[in-house]
Each structure stands twice: as C-alpha cells, then as structure tokens.
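Researcher: Next entry in the queue.
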Amino acid sequence: MPCVVRAERLAGIWTKKKVQGVRMIEVTRDVFRLAEAFTISRGSRTEAQVLTVRVERDGVTGWGECVPYARYGETPESVTAQIEGLPAGITRAGLQAALPAGAARNAVDCALWDRAAKVAGVRVWELAGLPAPGPEITAFTLSLDAPERMEAAARRQAHRPLLKIKLGTPDDMPRLEAVRRGAPGARIIVDANEGWSAEVYADLAPHLLRLGVALVEQPLPSEADDALLGLARPVPVCADESCHDRASLPGLAGKYDMVNIKLDKTGGLTEALALRDAARGAGFGVMVGCMVGSSLAMAPAVLVAQGAEVTDLDGPLLLAEDRDRPLRYDDAGVHPPEAALWG
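Model: Structure for this entry, 343 residues:
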C-alpha cells in the first residue's frame, strides 16, 4: 500500500529558491508504519524513520534514502547537519572525501547517482559499467520474540526459501528450535546483533550446524570480536557491525567468513560496489543487507546484491506502506527498480 505516513522538511540546503544552474539539496524525514512490531536484541520499533534527500539542478532531481542508526551514533538531526555542511556543487568523487562512511553520505551518493542517470538518459547500472541486474532471492526476517510466537511466525512464512532469525540473548536455543519446527524446509540464517558472548557462541555453534543454519551474523560485539580468533566456525560467520567499508577488511581476517554490505554503513552505492569487489578479492563471501527502510533505500542495494551469496533486502516487506513506485517482490525475489522509483 503506497503511502508515506508523514513527512517533515528538515532542511533546504544551499538555496531557498530554485535558481537555474544552482544545485539544491532538500532533506525530509519520512515515517513509514511497520506491518507489525519489529524486535532485535537492542529493542523494538513500530515504524521506520528515514531521511529522504533530493538533489536538484537545472530541473533534474535525483533522490536517495538513508536510515540514521543510533548504534553508530547517528540521529536524524546529526545526519541532516552533515548534509547541510556539504559544499555547493559536490560531486560523487568529492563526496567520498567530504563525508565519512555512514547514512548522510549514503543518501546523497544515491541521489547523485539517480540524477546522473536521468541526465544521461540511461540506467544507473549502465553508468556504473555493470551488467543489467536481475531478481535476487531475499531473506525474510523474523523478529525476536517468545519461542511459541516465533514458531507461529515461521509457519506463516514457511513458504519463503530463506528466513532470517533475530536472536542475541543467552536463551536463544528454544527460539531456534521453534523456528526450525515452524519452517522445516526453509534455509535459515541467524543474526545475533552482537548479543552473544564467546562462550554462548561456542555452545550454540554445534546446534546451529545441527539445525541446518546456513550463516550466523555478528555473534559478538564488534569491539570484542577478537575472541572469534581461534574459535571453530562450523557455520560461516558474517561481519555486520564489524564491517563498514573497505578500511574494515584487514581487521576481519581470521574472524569472519563473510561481510554484510549495507549502504547506510558504506556511505552509498559508490563505496558499496568497491567494498564488494575488495571483499571478494580478499576471500570473503558477500551478503547484502539493509536497515528497515522503504523501496527507495533497497533500490541501489539490489545492484550490489547481484551474485551475492546472501541477499537480505526485505525492508519493504516489513512495512505497512511504501513509496508510490515500490520494488516488486515475487517468487523470483526482489526485482531491480523501475526508473520511476530510482536509477
């Protein structure tokens, strides 16, 4: 059901009125209701709060979306301030140096890509020198809950080929068993959201294997993940909070088998594509994930997800409403965006 619940203009950057040849950036805060409460080990939410950035020049507007994330010290106000501080005429290349990896750079980078594609009259993947994308099977996330409720949720979603379970407590084994009962045929990945200790992970690891778990994301806090060195990894372990951009890669060796690429961490499509190539070159598998956002946020990530071992771009499936031209999801997975949405 396409509809943004409410939108608040946060800033009109660089100029208050449209002047031919002068670039403008506008930031709005958009709020989308979730279909149901979404819970991870850090807390629950009932809505997705995103920032939408529009970059306009000479009558052509590109747009992008980001999700300021408190885990990384971001707020809507701090991210807006970062965008407001950009110089007039910022380019994609200049943006990489002007802002650090994070939500602010992501929204502006994706908006600049979108505008450039519109100016050139081609799709973004053509501009980036990429093959035409196709659909990718995506995970569907079950939020953290009591075992019986997670089992019921798994039964409702058992037709999906890939389920992602939010865990991250010392008492996760009954939850995992319950989900496997509810969806005996589904491929399962687990996201602990930094909620386990090394001892809990070591205890659970054989059971993850026994229950057919294909991947475990970020079992330990990023600042304590040296404890993974030397631990057995019977199931591949994926870095999420420990991996932001290419600068993260050297510190992941010996701890992780895969990296989770999210545009709100990399700071946009530009760095996400570079991180994907660098990660593969360093021997890591690739997962492409997302924050809880709309189809506008997922659209550029679909390009990064082409050929990834795991795609987790289910944000719009968790919403009660979406953008007016949403991404298409069907049995083939999440499809690339139409030009009317992005790129």
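Model: The two ends are 22 Å apart (CA to CA).
Researcher: Noted, moving on.
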